[in-house]
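It is worth pausing here to work through a concrete case rather than discussing structure prediction in the abstract. The textbook approach is simple: state the sequence, then state the predicted structure, then interpret. We follow exactly that order.
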Amino acid sequence: MQHLEEQIAHLTRTVDELNAIVTRQQDEIDNLTRRVEMLMRREGERAQEGSGGIVLGDERPPHY
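Step two, the predicted structure:
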């Protein structure tokens, strides 16, 4: 019986540790998702303004 109680205590501790790790990971994922959304909005605004500065195909760069 004592052996089972020790296993349950160990498993409970492991579950608590994993829960803390998953919670931290979810917080980081949420933070990164917000940052990506912000960057996507910013890039969309930049593209609408026409100041993207991307050279496409045969287009000459401005210094020529």
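Step three, interpretation. The chain has one helix and no strands. Residues 26 and 32 are 10 Å apart (CA to CA).
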